Amino acid sequence: MLKTGYLGDVKLQIELADNFWRRFLGLMGRKRLPAGRGLLITSCNSVHMCFMRFPIDVVYFDKDYTVLKIVRRLRPWLGVSFCRGAYAALELTAGATNLDTMIGQRLRY
User: What's the pTM?
Assistant: First the structure.
């Protein structure tokens, strides 16, 4: 199920991965992620790119969904990222986080 969310002024369609199976699968096996769509993974402080076919941007959040860290253009098969203290990670199409996306912003959905 998709929910509408906002990161700053950017409107997103957010898919929620909030159980073991959805978190495990993440975006693996997908050919792409449509523009304007993201996968929000709860209970997540790191992301790996094994079995991924496309680069992504990752935004890490605390429990209040305040941005802690932004990782741009994480490469398929090679990329790994981590954010100490993160509660959730939002995976987006590479390039979706622009200069308007800043640490301290909040995700509203």
Answer: 0.94
Amino acid at 98: N
Render pLDDT for 24-55 as a digit per residue (tens, 0 to 9): 888 988 999 998 999 999 999 999 999 999 99
HSE-CB for 85 with a 13 A CA cutoff: 7
End-to-end alpha-carbon separation of the chain, Å? 13
Q: How far is CA 101 from CA 16, 44, 77, 85, 98, in A?
A: 20, 20, 25, 19, 6
At 20, phi and psi to the nearest 5? -55, -50
C-alpha torsion angle, residues 8, 11, 13, 15 (rounded to 10): 0
**Is 54 in a helix, a strand, or coil?**
coil
CB atoms closer than 10 angstroms to residue 75:
13
What average pLDDT does this structure show over 16-28?
92
